């Protein structure tokens, strides 16, 4: 047990040292950029820039599940409105659930994607405290899910594909949300999304937490960004339940198989979307371009399928999840 703890400590120290080296080199690049002008300085600048890119690429390639979870929560990662800015045109946000209020933790509206009318739904967090409070830290209440469903059903009425962006630690667990039917709102979304007669493409862009994520994640294609994660509970929550110690979140993250690669191997997601060097938070525009290639290809393929084929494949897709067979004795 002590050997494993020592190995983990050594790995963390190595990662911390790599990060310091990268930060030091980045400072050198900035200094050289400021002083650049001479041919020798430009050559040195390019050499160091390449070295930084290589170290950063190596650093992000060997991250563990817990480290990737921290990147998925980075406050500078692109959120739904960032993807709307880079990927869509003529976006018109729709507000309210026509029953109680407008939940700002969910962004929903109509837009055009490469000239094609679509509906966009996604979680929206905030970058500073004022925005986070206004967006309720990206944790939707029942009215948020009802707004999302209203927009998705409107899209289905007019034959518009639905594109959703998932990034939430979970549905809001407060008493007021429970009083207004949090569980019922999530369950209704699951049922109705399963039978929407239009293509539905889901992308986990940050953290996909529990039913709060799944309520807008029933689709024909499920994508996940390279450093995102998707799970029934957060690593901290799992550690608190299993070991009664949230400090064991790193151990829980490894055991829960929450990374993009694990989810792909388990058949939970269809495609892993690569991120630019340094993560999506380092370059929003590059992250959007990489996602754009995947969404465009998938939407073209799904558009050629009939409604009957779409619904049958979607149903089978989710029915198969969680089915495992032990063939050791055969």
Describe this structure in words.
By secondary structure, the chain is an alpha/beta fold. The protein folds into 2 domains: 2-62; 71-320, 2-enoyl-CoA Hydratase, Chain A, domain 1, CATH 3.90.226.10. 53% of the residues lie in helices and 15% in strands. It is built from 14 helices and 8 strands. The chain has helices at 2-35, 39-61, 65-72, 80-87, 129-134, 142-157, 175-179, 182-194, 210-214, 235-242, 249-256, 260-265, 284-303, 307-320; strands at residues 89-93, 106-113, 116-123, 162-168, 200-209, 221-225, 229-231, 271-273. Strands 1, 2, 3, 4, 5, 6, 7 and 8 form an 8-stranded mixed sheet that branches. A hairpin with a 2-residue loop joins β2 (106-113) and β3 (116-123). The radius of gyration is 22 Å and the shape is globular.
Keywords:
alpha/beta, 53% helix, globular, 2 domains, 2-enoyl-CoA Hydratase, Chain A, domain 1, 330 residues
What is the gist of this entry?
This protein has 330 residues and is an alpha/beta fold. The chain is built from 14 helices and eight strands.
The helix count comes to 14
Tell me, what is the CATH class of the largest domain?
Alpha Beta
CATH topology of the largest domain: 2-enoyl-CoA Hydratase, Chain A, domain 1
* Counted beta strands: 8
Shape: globular
Order of helices and strands: HHHHEEEHHEHHEHEEHHHEHH
Determine Rg (CA atoms, Å).
Answer: 22 Å
What's the N-to-C terminus distance?
Answer: 35 Å
Report the portion of residues in β strands: 5-15%
Major sheet attributes: 8 strands, mixed
Which residues form runs of ≥5 with pLDDT under 50? none
């Amino acid at each position: 047990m002590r050997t494993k703890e020592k190995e983990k400590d050594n790995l963390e120290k190595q990662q911390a040292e790599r990060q310091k080296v990268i930060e030091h080199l980045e400072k050198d690049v900035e200094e050289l950029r400021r002083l650049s002008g001479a041919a020798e300085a430009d050559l040195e600048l390019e050499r160091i820039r390449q070295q930084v890119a290589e170290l950063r690429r190596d650093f992000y390639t060997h991250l563990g599940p817990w480290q990737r979870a921290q990147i998925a929560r980075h406050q500078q990662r692109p959120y739904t409105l960032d993807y709307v800015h880079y990927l869509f045109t003529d976006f018109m946000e729709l507000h309210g659930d026509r029953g109680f209020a407008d939940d700002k933790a969910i962004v929903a509206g109509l837009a055009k994607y490469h000239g094609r009318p679509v509906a966009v739904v996604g979680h929206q967090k905030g970058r500073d405290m004022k925005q986070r409070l206004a967006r309720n830290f990206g944790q939707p209440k029942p009215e948020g899910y009802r707004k999302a469903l209203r927009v998705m059903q409107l899209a289905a009425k007019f034959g518009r594909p639905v594109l959703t962006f998932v990034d939430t630690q979970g549905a809001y667990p407060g008493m007021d949300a429970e009083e207004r039917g949090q569980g019922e709102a999530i369950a209704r979304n699951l049922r109705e999304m399963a039978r929407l007669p239009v293509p539905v493409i889901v992308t986990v862009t940050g953290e996909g937490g529990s039913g709060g994520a799944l309520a807008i994640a029933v689709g024909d294609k499920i994508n996940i960004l390279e450093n995102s994660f998707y799970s029934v509970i957060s690593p901290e929550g799992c550690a608190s339940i299993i070991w009664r110690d949230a400090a064991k979140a790193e151990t829980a993250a490894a055991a829960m198989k929450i990374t993009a690669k694990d989810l792909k191997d388990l058949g939970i997601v269809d495609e892993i979307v690569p991120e630019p060097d340094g993560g999506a938070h380092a370059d929003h525009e590059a992250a959007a371009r990489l996602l754009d290639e995947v969404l465009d290809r998938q939407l073209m393929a799904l558009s050629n399928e009939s409604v009957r084929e779409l619904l049958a494949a979607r149903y089978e897709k989710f029915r198969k999840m969680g089915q495992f067979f032990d063939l050791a004795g055969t």
